[in-house]
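One record is set out below.
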Amino acid sequence: MDPITAGIVGTFILLASIFLLRIPVGFAMGIIGFGGFAYVLNWNAATGMLGTELWNVFSKYGLTVIPLFILMGQICFYSGVNERLYKSAYAWMGEIRGGIAMTTVLACAGFAAICGSNSATAATMSTVALPEMKKFKYNPILSTGAVAAGATLGVVIPPSVVLIIIGLQTSQSIAQLFVGGMVPGVLLTVLFLATIWYLCKKNPDWGPAGPKTTFAEKLRSLPGSIEMVILFLLVMGGLFLGFFTPTEAGAAGAGLALLVAMLTGKMSWKKFHLAVNDSLKISCMIMVIMLGAVIFGRFLAVTRLPFEAAGWVAGLPIPPMVIIGVICLIYIIGGMVMDALALLLVTIPIFFPVVTAMGYDPLWFGVLITVVTTLGAITPPVGVNTFIVASMAKDVPMTDVFKGVSYFVAAYVLCVAILMLFPGVVTFLPRLMQ
Protein backbone atom coordinates (compact mmCIF):
# COMPACT_ATOMS: atom_id res chain seq x y z
CA MET A 1 0.00 0.00 0.00
CA ASP A 2 1.09 3.60 -0.49
CA PRO A 3 2.47 5.57 2.50
CA ILE A 4 -0.67 7.65 3.11
CA THR A 5 -2.85 4.53 3.22
CA ALA A 6 -0.28 2.97 5.56
CA GLY A 7 -0.63 5.98 7.87
CA ILE A 8 -4.41 5.67 7.96
CA VAL A 9 -4.25 1.90 8.53
CA GLY A 10 -1.63 2.35 11.26
CA THR A 11 -3.87 4.84 13.06
CA PHE A 12 -6.79 2.40 13.03
CA ILE A 13 -4.54 -0.42 14.26
CA LEU A 14 -3.40 1.83 17.12
CA LEU A 15 -7.01 2.54 18.11
CA ALA A 16 -7.87 -1.16 18.00
CA SER A 17 -4.79 -2.09 20.05
CA ILE A 18 -5.64 0.36 22.81
CA PHE A 19 -9.38 -0.04 23.05
CA LEU A 20 -9.90 -3.68 21.99
CA LEU A 21 -6.69 -5.44 23.01
CA ARG A 22 -6.04 -3.12 25.97
CA ILE A 23 -2.33 -2.81 25.17
CA PRO A 24 -0.75 0.00 27.27
CA VAL A 25 -0.80 3.15 25.21
CA GLY A 26 2.94 3.83 25.32
CA PHE A 27 3.84 0.34 24.12
CA ALA A 28 1.08 0.36 21.50
CA MET A 29 2.26 3.64 19.98
CA GLY A 30 5.91 2.59 20.09
CA ILE A 31 5.39 -0.86 18.54
CA ILE A 32 2.98 0.27 15.81
CA GLY A 33 5.04 3.39 15.07
CA PHE A 34 8.22 1.31 14.75
CA GLY A 35 6.53 -1.33 12.61
CA GLY A 36 4.89 1.26 10.38
CA PHE A 37 8.16 3.16 9.99
CA ALA A 38 9.92 -0.06 8.94
CA TYR A 39 7.12 -0.86 6.48
CA VAL A 40 7.18 2.55 4.79
CA LEU A 41 10.99 2.81 4.67
CA ASN A 42 13.04 -0.20 5.79
CA TRP A 43 14.20 -2.08 8.87
CA ASN A 44 17.58 -0.30 9.12
CA ALA A 45 15.90 3.11 8.99
CA ALA A 46 13.45 2.05 11.69
CA THR A 47 16.16 0.78 14.05
CA GLY A 48 18.18 3.95 13.44
CA MET A 49 15.13 6.09 14.20
CA LEU A 50 14.43 4.08 17.36
CA GLY A 51 17.98 4.54 18.66
CA THR A 52 17.94 8.25 17.85
CA GLU A 53 14.57 8.88 19.51
CA LEU A 54 15.50 6.82 22.58
CA TRP A 55 18.51 9.06 23.03
CA ASN A 56 16.66 12.28 22.19
CA VAL A 57 13.78 11.59 24.59
CA PHE A 58 15.68 10.22 27.57
CA SER A 59 18.77 12.45 27.38
CA LYS A 60 16.92 15.77 27.52
CA TYR A 61 17.87 17.73 30.62
CA GLY A 62 14.49 19.47 30.55
CA LEU A 63 12.69 16.19 31.19
CA THR A 64 14.18 16.03 34.69
CA VAL A 65 11.48 18.51 35.66
CA ILE A 66 8.95 15.65 35.53
CA PRO A 67 10.39 13.35 38.25
CA LEU A 68 11.31 16.33 40.44
CA PHE A 69 7.83 17.81 40.50
CA ILE A 70 6.31 14.35 40.88
CA LEU A 71 8.60 13.77 43.88
CA MET A 72 7.45 17.09 45.35
CA GLY A 73 3.83 16.01 44.95
CA GLN A 74 4.49 12.58 46.45
CA ILE A 75 6.28 14.06 49.46
CA CYS A 76 3.34 16.42 49.99
CA PHE A 77 0.97 13.48 49.67
CA TYR A 78 2.75 11.17 52.15
CA SER A 79 3.33 13.99 54.64
CA GLY A 80 -0.38 14.86 54.56
CA VAL A 81 0.02 18.35 53.07
CA ASN A 82 -2.65 17.64 50.48
CA GLU A 83 -5.12 16.49 53.13
CA ARG A 84 -4.62 19.65 55.20
CA LEU A 85 -4.83 21.82 52.09
CA TYR A 86 -8.09 20.27 50.97
CA LYS A 87 -9.57 20.54 54.45
CA SER A 88 -8.85 24.24 54.26
CA ALA A 89 -10.27 24.43 50.73
CA TYR A 90 -13.34 22.52 51.83
CA ALA A 91 -13.94 25.01 54.65
CA TRP A 92 -13.96 27.88 52.14
CA MET A 93 -15.52 26.28 49.05
CA GLY A 94 -17.03 23.02 50.24
CA GLU A 95 -20.46 24.58 50.71
CA ILE A 96 -20.52 25.28 46.96
CA ARG A 97 -21.53 22.43 44.69
CA GLY A 98 -18.38 21.27 42.94
CA GLY A 99 -16.21 23.54 45.08
CA ILE A 100 -13.40 21.04 45.56
CA ALA A 101 -13.31 20.26 41.83
CA MET A 102 -13.07 24.00 41.14
CA THR A 103 -10.24 24.27 43.65
CA THR A 104 -8.50 21.40 41.87
CA VAL A 105 -8.70 23.17 38.49
CA LEU A 106 -7.23 26.33 40.00
CA ALA A 107 -4.48 24.31 41.67
CA CYS A 108 -3.78 22.55 38.36
CA ALA A 109 -3.54 25.91 36.60
CA GLY A 110 -1.03 27.23 39.12
CA PHE A 111 1.00 24.03 39.34
CA ALA A 112 1.02 23.48 35.56
CA ALA A 113 2.17 27.05 34.99
CA ILE A 114 5.02 26.47 37.43
CA CYS A 115 6.38 23.21 36.05
CA GLY A 116 5.31 23.66 32.41
CA SER A 117 4.51 19.96 32.02
CA ASN A 118 1.04 18.57 31.45
CA SER A 119 2.20 15.07 32.34
CA ALA A 120 3.81 16.06 35.63
CA THR A 121 0.76 18.11 36.59
CA ALA A 122 -1.65 15.30 35.74
CA ALA A 123 0.36 12.76 37.75
CA THR A 124 0.95 15.02 40.76
CA MET A 125 -2.57 16.43 41.00
CA SER A 126 -4.03 12.95 40.55
CA THR A 127 -2.11 11.89 43.63
CA VAL A 128 -3.12 14.98 45.60
CA ALA A 129 -6.68 15.68 44.46
CA LEU A 130 -8.36 12.38 43.57
CA PRO A 131 -8.18 10.83 47.08
CA GLU A 132 -9.64 13.99 48.63
CA MET A 133 -12.52 14.26 46.15
CA LYS A 134 -13.22 10.57 46.68
CA LYS A 135 -13.34 11.22 50.43
CA PHE A 136 -15.90 13.98 49.90
CA LYS A 137 -17.97 11.59 47.72
CA TYR A 138 -17.43 13.35 44.40
CA ASN A 139 -18.48 11.45 41.30
CA PRO A 140 -15.33 9.94 39.69
CA ILE A 141 -16.46 11.19 36.27
CA LEU A 142 -16.24 14.77 37.53
CA SER A 143 -13.10 14.33 39.64
CA THR A 144 -10.98 12.58 36.99
CA GLY A 145 -12.22 14.91 34.25
CA ALA A 146 -11.35 18.00 36.31
CA VAL A 147 -7.80 16.79 36.98
CA ALA A 148 -7.10 15.65 33.39
CA ALA A 149 -8.51 18.83 31.83
CA GLY A 150 -7.06 21.18 34.45
CA ALA A 151 -3.57 19.78 33.93
CA THR A 152 -3.62 20.92 30.28
CA LEU A 153 -3.71 24.59 31.30
CA GLY A 154 0.07 24.70 31.71
CA VAL A 155 0.60 24.54 27.95
CA VAL A 156 -1.35 27.79 27.47
CA ILE A 157 -0.39 29.62 30.66
CA PRO A 158 3.29 30.68 30.44
CA PRO A 159 5.93 29.40 30.75
CA SER A 160 4.91 26.99 27.98
CA VAL A 161 7.15 24.57 26.10
CA VAL A 162 4.76 24.58 23.15
CA LEU A 163 4.88 28.38 22.87
CA ILE A 164 8.69 28.21 22.97
CA ILE A 165 8.71 25.68 20.10
CA ILE A 166 6.32 27.86 18.08
CA GLY A 167 8.44 30.96 18.71
CA LEU A 168 11.61 29.20 17.57
CA GLN A 169 9.97 27.73 14.47
CA THR A 170 8.30 30.96 13.36
CA SER A 171 11.02 33.42 14.49
CA GLN A 172 8.63 35.21 16.84
CA SER A 173 9.34 36.72 20.24
CA ILE A 174 8.86 34.04 22.87
CA ALA A 175 8.20 36.74 25.47
CA GLN A 176 5.41 38.17 23.31
CA LEU A 177 3.92 34.70 22.88
CA PHE A 178 4.03 34.21 26.65
CA VAL A 179 2.19 37.49 27.24
CA GLY A 180 -0.30 36.64 24.49
CA GLY A 181 -1.07 33.32 26.15
CA MET A 182 -1.97 34.79 29.53
CA VAL A 183 -5.52 35.98 28.80
CA PRO A 184 -6.50 32.82 26.84
CA GLY A 185 -5.12 30.75 29.73
CA VAL A 186 -7.26 32.64 32.24
CA LEU A 187 -10.25 32.42 29.88
CA LEU A 188 -9.87 28.65 29.56
CA THR A 189 -9.61 28.32 33.35
CA VAL A 190 -12.83 30.30 33.83
CA LEU A 191 -14.59 28.12 31.24
CA PHE A 192 -13.48 25.00 33.11
CA LEU A 193 -14.88 26.41 36.34
CA ALA A 194 -18.14 27.22 34.55
CA THR A 195 -18.25 23.64 33.22
CA ILE A 196 -17.95 22.26 36.76
CA TRP A 197 -20.67 24.64 37.99
CA TYR A 198 -23.00 23.55 35.18
CA LEU A 199 -22.35 19.82 35.73
CA CYS A 200 -23.00 20.12 39.45
CA LYS A 201 -26.13 22.17 38.88
CA LYS A 202 -27.42 19.52 36.47
CA ASN A 203 -26.21 16.61 38.64
CA PRO A 204 -26.15 17.81 42.28
CA ASP A 205 -24.84 14.45 43.53
CA TRP A 206 -21.68 14.71 41.38
CA GLY A 207 -20.13 17.41 43.57
CA PRO A 208 -22.22 17.49 46.75
CA ALA A 209 -22.28 20.69 48.75
CA GLY A 210 -20.96 20.36 52.26
CA PRO A 211 -22.18 22.01 55.44
CA LYS A 212 -21.85 25.77 55.68
CA THR A 213 -19.02 27.09 57.81
CA THR A 214 -18.77 30.35 59.71
CA PHE A 215 -16.16 32.96 58.87
CA ALA A 216 -14.32 32.11 62.08
CA GLU A 217 -14.14 28.45 61.05
CA LYS A 218 -12.82 29.50 57.66
CA LEU A 219 -10.06 31.52 59.31
CA ARG A 220 -9.14 28.64 61.62
CA SER A 221 -8.69 26.38 58.59
CA LEU A 222 -6.07 28.63 56.95
CA PRO A 223 -3.01 27.18 58.76
CA GLY A 224 -3.66 23.95 56.89
CA SER A 225 -2.73 25.67 53.63
CA ILE A 226 0.36 27.55 54.81
CA GLU A 227 2.83 24.84 53.78
CA MET A 228 1.47 24.64 50.24
CA VAL A 229 1.33 28.44 49.94
CA ILE A 230 4.98 28.73 50.97
CA LEU A 231 5.91 25.99 48.53
CA PHE A 232 3.92 27.66 45.76
CA LEU A 233 5.50 31.06 46.42
CA LEU A 234 9.00 29.59 46.45
CA VAL A 235 8.60 27.81 43.13
CA MET A 236 6.50 30.47 41.38
CA GLY A 237 8.48 33.42 42.74
CA GLY A 238 11.80 31.77 41.94
CA LEU A 239 10.73 31.09 38.38
CA PHE A 240 9.31 34.48 37.57
CA LEU A 241 12.09 36.40 39.32
CA GLY A 242 14.66 34.41 37.40
CA PHE A 243 16.21 32.65 40.40
CA PHE A 244 15.33 29.17 39.09
CA THR A 245 14.99 27.32 35.84
CA PRO A 246 11.94 24.99 35.81
CA THR A 247 14.15 22.01 36.69
CA GLU A 248 15.85 23.91 39.52
CA ALA A 249 12.41 25.02 40.72
CA GLY A 250 11.34 21.38 40.85
CA ALA A 251 14.43 20.48 42.86
CA ALA A 252 13.91 23.43 45.23
CA GLY A 253 10.25 22.52 45.64
CA ALA A 254 11.00 18.88 46.40
CA GLY A 255 13.75 19.90 48.83
CA LEU A 256 11.52 22.38 50.67
CA ALA A 257 8.63 19.91 50.78
CA LEU A 258 10.94 17.30 52.32
CA LEU A 259 12.38 19.84 54.80
CA VAL A 260 8.92 21.00 55.93
CA ALA A 261 7.74 17.40 56.26
CA MET A 262 10.75 16.49 58.42
CA LEU A 263 10.49 19.59 60.62
CA THR A 264 6.80 18.97 61.27
CA GLY A 265 7.44 15.28 61.98
CA LYS A 266 5.11 14.16 59.20
CA MET A 267 7.69 12.23 57.16
CA SER A 268 9.01 8.89 58.37
CA TRP A 269 11.68 6.85 56.58
CA LYS A 270 9.00 4.43 55.38
CA LYS A 271 6.89 7.24 53.92
CA PHE A 272 9.95 8.75 52.23
CA HIS A 273 10.76 5.38 50.68
CA LEU A 274 7.19 5.10 49.40
CA ALA A 275 7.34 8.64 47.98
CA VAL A 276 10.55 7.93 46.06
CA ASN A 277 9.30 4.53 44.88
CA ASP A 278 6.00 5.96 43.60
CA SER A 279 7.82 8.88 41.94
CA LEU A 280 10.04 6.41 40.08
CA LYS A 281 7.07 4.32 38.89
CA ILE A 282 5.05 7.32 37.72
CA SER A 283 8.04 8.94 35.99
CA CYS A 284 8.85 5.73 34.10
CA MET A 285 5.24 5.38 32.98
CA ILE A 286 5.20 8.96 31.68
CA MET A 287 8.54 8.53 29.87
CA VAL A 288 7.30 5.41 28.07
CA ILE A 289 4.12 7.19 26.95
CA MET A 290 6.13 10.16 25.70
CA LEU A 291 8.58 7.92 23.80
CA GLY A 292 5.74 5.97 22.21
CA ALA A 293 4.04 9.19 21.11
CA VAL A 294 7.23 10.47 19.48
CA ILE A 295 7.86 7.18 17.62
CA PHE A 296 4.30 7.05 16.33
CA GLY A 297 4.62 10.69 15.31
CA ARG A 298 7.73 9.87 13.26
CA PHE A 299 5.81 7.10 11.50
CA LEU A 300 3.01 9.49 10.54
CA ALA A 301 5.58 12.02 9.34
CA VAL A 302 7.20 9.57 6.87
CA THR A 303 3.77 8.58 5.52
CA ARG A 304 3.31 12.28 4.64
CA LEU A 305 -0.25 12.06 5.94
CA PRO A 306 0.01 15.37 7.87
CA PHE A 307 1.67 17.07 4.87
CA GLU A 308 -1.02 15.93 2.46
CA ALA A 309 -3.77 17.05 4.82
CA ALA A 310 -2.12 20.47 5.21
CA GLY A 311 -1.66 20.87 1.45
CA TRP A 312 -5.27 19.96 0.84
CA VAL A 313 -6.45 22.64 3.26
CA ALA A 314 -4.24 25.33 1.77
CA GLY A 315 -5.68 24.71 -1.68
CA LEU A 316 -9.35 24.98 -0.75
CA PRO A 317 -11.25 27.74 -2.68
CA ILE A 318 -13.05 29.08 0.40
CA PRO A 319 -12.94 32.23 2.62
CA PRO A 320 -9.83 32.67 4.83
CA MET A 321 -11.69 32.26 8.13
CA VAL A 322 -13.14 28.97 6.92
CA ILE A 323 -9.61 27.82 6.06
CA ILE A 324 -8.51 28.75 9.60
CA GLY A 325 -11.42 26.65 10.90
CA VAL A 326 -10.37 23.68 8.77
CA ILE A 327 -6.76 24.06 9.96
CA CYS A 328 -7.99 24.00 13.57
CA LEU A 329 -10.04 20.90 12.79
CA ILE A 330 -6.95 19.16 11.38
CA TYR A 331 -5.00 20.09 14.51
CA ILE A 332 -7.78 18.69 16.70
CA ILE A 333 -7.91 15.43 14.71
CA GLY A 334 -4.12 15.28 14.49
CA GLY A 335 -3.82 15.81 18.24
CA MET A 336 -5.96 12.71 18.77
CA VAL A 337 -3.43 10.45 17.05
CA MET A 338 -0.15 12.33 17.36
CA ASP A 339 1.93 13.95 20.07
CA ALA A 340 1.29 17.72 20.16
CA LEU A 341 4.92 18.74 19.73
CA ALA A 342 5.45 16.23 16.91
CA LEU A 343 2.31 17.51 15.18
CA LEU A 344 3.46 21.11 15.46
CA LEU A 345 6.96 20.31 14.21
CA VAL A 346 5.47 18.65 11.12
CA THR A 347 2.70 21.12 10.26
CA ILE A 348 3.87 24.62 11.27
CA PRO A 349 6.28 24.96 8.31
CA ILE A 350 3.29 24.31 6.03
CA PHE A 351 0.45 26.14 7.75
CA PHE A 352 2.29 29.21 9.05
CA PRO A 353 3.16 30.70 5.62
CA VAL A 354 -0.42 30.06 4.48
CA VAL A 355 -1.89 31.89 7.47
CA THR A 356 0.50 34.87 7.28
CA ALA A 357 -0.10 35.15 3.52
CA MET A 358 -3.82 35.54 4.27
CA GLY A 359 -2.97 38.54 6.49
CA TYR A 360 -3.52 37.04 9.95
CA ASP A 361 -1.43 38.07 12.95
CA PRO A 362 1.28 35.40 13.49
CA LEU A 363 1.16 35.97 17.26
CA TRP A 364 -2.57 35.27 17.29
CA PHE A 365 -2.15 32.13 15.21
CA GLY A 366 0.64 30.83 17.46
CA VAL A 367 -1.50 31.10 20.59
CA LEU A 368 -4.58 29.78 18.78
CA ILE A 369 -2.92 26.54 17.65
CA THR A 370 -1.40 26.16 21.12
CA VAL A 371 -4.92 26.05 22.59
CA VAL A 372 -6.14 23.76 19.81
CA THR A 373 -3.29 21.23 20.05
CA THR A 374 -3.57 21.22 23.85
CA LEU A 375 -6.97 19.63 23.35
CA GLY A 376 -5.09 16.56 22.10
CA ALA A 377 -3.80 15.92 25.62
CA ILE A 378 -7.29 14.81 26.71
CA THR A 379 -8.58 13.21 23.51
CA PRO A 380 -8.04 9.57 22.52
CA PRO A 381 -5.95 7.70 21.55
CA VAL A 382 -2.92 9.83 22.49
CA GLY A 383 -4.65 11.77 25.25
CA VAL A 384 -1.63 11.54 27.53
CA ASN A 385 -3.24 13.29 30.49
CA THR A 386 -6.30 11.06 30.30
CA PHE A 387 -4.25 7.88 30.43
CA ILE A 388 -2.08 9.19 33.28
CA VAL A 389 -5.13 10.08 35.38
CA ALA A 390 -6.74 6.73 34.52
CA SER A 391 -3.62 4.88 35.63
CA MET A 392 -3.63 6.78 38.93
CA ALA A 393 -7.37 6.23 39.54
CA LYS A 394 -7.24 2.45 39.34
CA ASP A 395 -10.78 2.02 40.67
CA VAL A 396 -12.28 4.24 37.93
CA PRO A 397 -13.04 2.63 34.54
CA MET A 398 -11.29 4.15 31.53
CA THR A 399 -14.70 4.91 29.99
CA ASP A 400 -15.61 7.10 32.98
CA VAL A 401 -12.36 9.06 32.68
CA PHE A 402 -12.99 9.72 28.99
CA LYS A 403 -16.57 10.66 29.76
CA GLY A 404 -15.34 13.13 32.37
CA VAL A 405 -12.90 14.88 30.05
CA SER A 406 -15.48 14.97 27.25
CA TYR A 407 -17.49 17.54 29.23
CA PHE A 408 -14.47 19.87 29.23
CA VAL A 409 -13.98 19.59 25.46
CA ALA A 410 -16.91 22.01 25.05
CA ALA A 411 -14.96 24.61 27.06
CA TYR A 412 -12.02 24.20 24.67
CA VAL A 413 -14.24 24.58 21.62
CA LEU A 414 -15.82 27.72 23.07
CA CYS A 415 -12.40 29.17 23.91
CA VAL A 416 -11.16 28.52 20.35
CA ALA A 417 -14.31 30.14 18.92
CA ILE A 418 -13.78 33.25 21.08
CA LEU A 419 -10.14 33.52 19.99
CA MET A 420 -11.16 33.22 16.32
CA LEU A 421 -13.94 35.79 16.57
CA PHE A 422 -12.04 38.23 18.80
CA PRO A 423 -8.27 38.09 18.01
CA GLY A 424 -7.73 41.04 20.37
CA VAL A 425 -8.07 38.63 23.29
CA VAL A 426 -4.59 37.39 22.32
CA THR A 427 -2.98 40.55 20.92
CA PHE A 428 -4.23 43.14 23.44
CA LEU A 429 -1.61 42.62 26.17
CA PRO A 430 1.42 42.26 23.85
CA ARG A 431 0.46 45.48 22.04
CA LEU A 432 -0.07 47.24 25.37
CA MET A 433 3.40 46.24 26.49
CA GLN A 434 4.92 47.46 23.23
About this structure: The first helix runs from residue 3 to 19.
